[in-house]
Write a structure and sequence with these properties.
The protein contains nine helices and seven strands. By secondary structure, the protein is of the alpha/beta class. A seven-stranded parallel sheet has the order 3-2-1-4-5-6-7, sandwiched between helices. Helix 3 runs parallel beside helix 4.
Length: 273
Amino acid sequence: MLQRRRCRVAQLSEEAQQFQGWPVQGGPPPKGSIAWVVGVGAMQGTGASLARRLAEGGMHVLATGRTEAKVTAVVDDIVARGGTATAVVADAGSEEGMAPALAKLDELGPPTVAIYNAGGSQWRSSILEMDADFWESVWRTNCFGSFLMAREAAKRMLGRGGAIMFTGSISGKLSRPKLAAYSSAKFGQRALAQALAKELGPQNIHVANIIPHGPIDGDRLNSAFPHAKDARPTDGMIDPDQIAETFWAVMNQPRLAWTLEMDIRPYCEPILL
């Protein structure tokens, strides 16, 4: 076993081992560098919180989402707070849909950080109620889009270092009947993150999958289920800003202690292994 590990280490290029750019030593990403956040929607949501936190850290954020009014509102808010950001409307579910974001990304310059946050829990009462279009749509948004973003970010990070991160889900670790389509997509996203970490880590690209476990206190849930929060214990929902802080903390790790996967939950949420 030890000999095999030595062989793997020996296969790392001298250039990769001697690389000293970010994120090798850890700490915040370089100020003014590009952060690409895919899946920016409502102002009170995980995507918006991620975009704000990265801008607060001094990065220029390329905020990408499907709804122009929502993405623009988030960018306007960042600018009003003294940050810098650019909005672009794109659909991560296809290569054609992602093209506007890639064009804008190449205008701004290569990303230092790329985060895939698109998707969300989608369910049906039974597998019998899941038609092919529904299943494929869920997969495209949660899994295929993750692949597209990661592939394009990695192309632009090679030789430069960076971080590629995903908003995962407990459904990517534990499947349930009503969430079969969503779980299969999130299991796929998790497998992608693991494969990327093994391939890109030795090339100084930190890959991480952050897994919220529990209801997120954002506009999506609160609009669909306005009394959900009242049914929870105090502090029983996850604040999107705290999810963003977790991303930021993991992003700041040096390569001698990188996290691949981290789950976060309210204190009252049962621990499911």
